[in-house]
Model the fold of this input.
Amino acid sequence: MTFNKNKNMKLGLGTAALGRPQYINVRVEDCDNSNLETFRKESFQVLEEAYNSGVRYFDTAPGYGLAEELVLEWLQTKNDSSIKIATKWGYTYTANFDPNAKIHEVKEHSLAKLNEQWNFSKQLLPHLKVYQIHSATLETGVLENKGVLEQLAILKKEHRLKIGITTSGTNQVEVIRKALDVTINEERLFDVFQVTYNFLDQSLLTISDELIRENKSIVIKEALANGRIFSNKNYPHYNKMYSFLEQLALKHNVGTDAIALQYCLQTISKSTVLSGASNSKQLQENLKVNSFSLSSLEIEKLKSFKVSPEVYWPERKQLQWN
Ligand SMILES: NC(=O)c1ccc[n+]([C@@H]2O[C@H](COP(=O)([O-])OP(=O)(O)OC[C@H]3O[C@@H](n4cnc5c(N)ncnc54)[C@H](OP(=O)(O)O)[C@@H]3O)[C@@H](O)[C@H]2O)c1
Done:
């Protein structure tokens, strides 16, 4: 099942980098936090440009600083029922836009947090179509929390929402498998799976066919491996991958970001891939994904750069909030 009605637009826009100046990435330089109003205006402009380019699926979360509020404000300038908003619950943003903050977000998968965050997010209705557990894990026990699951089933029915989970980490396939089995009143609860997938972490491929067979929606996040797909001297073990990506980028007249996004679109059929652009320039580069396709040989070569989740995730954990 896909989200964007426009067949030529397969990207959705993620708002993680639009709601907080600091975000997990490979940037070396710190970003400027001094003018939040300018930051907000620029982020608003990215939403607007994405919309004008045909994007209709927008992913947000209360954990993304001012993102949910910004999406709400932006929606009020629109009158278009084709806009679909996905949000989440389970993380609270705690950094207060302080560049030196030690803790940026706090996870809590309780019924109280669900109720508290829903109270704000419900303002996104009727555009709100997808409601997700932010980073479901086995450790928080959220997939066994009867109170939470029943409340999600109520929201699903009352507001015709699709209920989803987002997953990260070495055991994301195990978490997806467990979520697939969750039923409330003999009905499967989860319809949408927002997963990490790129040519470095291909673990999704072990379960994507099953998800597609079950008519679940797949939304791909971290398609650029948080920036690790861009040539970077701190990752010399990816040098072969970098030179192949640069060769492909030159051939297709796009950036390596578009190559990585296209890889996801072509290898997971009917998926929605999230652009994580933090500014207009990046968005325009990401949108070039619509201008070309990769050959099967090129896809096979990209697949050969796979690393195991046990290598991928510790490297991801070392990334800083910059
Ligand atoms: N549910 C979850 O737990 C979860 C976790 C992560 C993401 N997400 C969702 O998925 C979306 C996308 O994921 P993501 O942003 O984390 O990862 P990503 O797409 O792998 O990486 C995005 C980063 O790549 C860089 N970038 C993008 N386009 C670029 C370009 N053309 N040139 C140079 N750099 C470029 C930017 O970094 P700089 O800003 O440093 O330039 C941007 O922040 C998020 O917005 C969010 O909606 C959800």
